[in-house]
Amino acid sequence: MSPAPVHPLLGRVVVVTGAARGIGAAVAAALRTEGALVVGVDRDPSPEADAQIVADLADRAQLEGVISRVWSEHGRLDALVNNAGLARHAPLNGLDLDELDLMWAVNVRATVALTRDAMRVMARPAGAGGRIVNVISTAGLQGQPGEAAYCASKAAVRGFTEAAAEEGRLVGVHVTGIYPAGVSTGFWDDAVADRAAFTGDKSWLEPAAVATQVVAVLALPPGIEVPTLVVRQAGDVDVGAVERKLGLVRR
Predict the structure, then answer these.
(1) CA atoms of 53 and 61, how far apart (whole Å)
(2) What is the b/e burial string over 214-233, where b = at least 16 CB atoms within 10 angstroms of the residue's CB?
(3) Tens of pLDDT along 173-220?
(4) Catalytic residue flag (residue 179)
(5) By the 8 A CB rule, do 180 and 157 touch?
(6) Which residue of the set 18, 150, 151, 161 is catalytic?
């Protein structure tokens, strides 16, 4: 007789921010397939979530009540996926400070605050431990023209995530930064006027591909850590640049 399948996420309570669309909706759907109870946090209802917290994470008062509400309504928290984020791309000399403040509030402050609050309730010995996944961006690894403020916000989240991972090890909370390259979502509708013209010829990830990696990290046994994971679509490479470099070093 073959052993019964193991479902490590069955019955786990997982909070997913930005769950109404794009990567967040794909993560919520994938988690539900694995038997998790998904709490979707977004300004709009999240069709793939089991429970809803409709909140604007740019609003400090709404932000600070999210984790306490999850705890009061569900009595546990096993994982948090900080996915909510936005971009307003512009040349540096045309940067609008209101848009900078909005990006900083959602991309950085919300991630920091929710990670802090989640770690407080998950931390051992009072808590049972858990996992936090911050969906960042390859823009946090390398600056890009026209994306200076967005890259700054994602680089800030990268630094925070690395520090939080170090602290989390002491209390049984594993923190992972996932860095997707370009993902084909509505994110770009607000970021730039013409995505194709801005990004050029490149290969795009689908949200489900990123979601698969998020779920894989959340399903890892407690003894395994994945501090950093970069996710790219095969073919997302400047072939000409690679060939030029190889030409310079060939003997």
Answers:
(1) 13
(2) bbebbbeeeeeebeebebeb
(3) 999 999 998 776 666 566 555 555 555 566 778 999 999 999 999 999
(4) no
(5) no
(6) 150
